[in-house]
Amino acid sequence: MLNIIFYLFIGITAIQFCYYIFVFGKFSFAKEQKITPKRIPISVIVCAKNEEDNVARFIPLLAEQDYPDYEIILINDASSDTTLDIFEEFEKQYAHVRIVNVENNEAFWGNKKFALTLGIKAAKKDYLLFTDADCYPLSKNWITNMSSQLTLRKTIVLGYGAYEKIAKSFLNKIIRFETILTAVQYFSWAKAGHPYMGVGRNLAYKKEEFFNMNGFIDHMKIRSGDDDLFINQAATGKNTAICYSPESFTLSKPKTTFKEWFQQKRRHTSTASFYKTFDKMQLGLFYSSQLLFLLLAILLFSFQFNWKFVLPIVLLRYTYAYISLGYAAKKLNEKDVMYWYPVIEFIMVFTQLNIFITNTFSKPMHWK
């Protein structure tokens, strides 16, 4: 039996090697991205529900972008706080800011996709750039960088949405590591010609793509997925580009308690169950191979079975994974999280297992 486990362990390690080197390496080892500015008209779209503090801080950073032709569509999704009042002040202050005020609709109660649909229809520009109300761009050249990847053929651009760093917070390192790993996955598969998701914190596409898919109609009843489910449906190897230049990044406020973050990850994971079959399979294979690698390694070490062979295999696996993710983390300005890589990965793998089990027995809550 231990011989069978040992050979299974070698096979699982080989699967991990293929992911980290041949798949993730497409992004990790890619050359630095060059930016050629364009003058494509852009509508920046922000949907907010009860985000008075965030929009007061971050909308000015959007309104003062160094870009020649853009508007900002601020969507107030039936907020009960002063979000709409703050939006109206910005509309008076900035000529290129427009408001879409969404009232509660019984048929689409609490559905962000309904509010986004109204905002997209109100946009006057042909290209749309999305971010969240709790996000802000890292530079005044955010629009310039994201729009630079749009062409006549590349009508979808996947960007990177980072999280703020919190000093002396190990949870923050876990959150940022998970964000890196997610970005490496969707960037790499996009470069491989098989894009499967993007994040609404930093995402661009031509309005035509939205109407070609009949908007969010195929998954309107699913509360989440205005970003990843739409991309899973609309993106192809021919129409999708990625943008990972440092000035294209956005930053968001991260969760500060494990419970809040766990609930957030439950929502994200539940949405992935609606991806295309191949995408669910490749994600499932990666995460299950991570889990099996750890479990089988622990089992073999506990019986001291062929430890002189098991130990080098374990060290080799961590070496190539560290190199692959390390190069990616450098591109994404997240090098510090890699110092804790083995520990964080161990926590992440079993957290993912916990999320899978929890979601199996109960549904997570979604948009506010």
From TrEMBL:
Pfam hit, one: Glycos_transf_2
Keyword annotations from UniProtKB, A to Z: Glycosyltransferase, Membrane, Transferase, Transmembrane, Transmembrane helix
Keyword Repeat in annotation: no
GO molecular function: glycosyltransferase activity
Residue intervals passing through the bilayer: 6-29, 283-303, 309-327, 339-357
Ranges where the Glycosyltransferase 2-like domain occurs: 43-163
Coiled coil: none
Cleaved signal peptide residues: none
UniProt record similarity statement: Belongs to the glycosyltransferase 2 family.
The protein's name in its UniProt record: Glycosyl transferase family 2
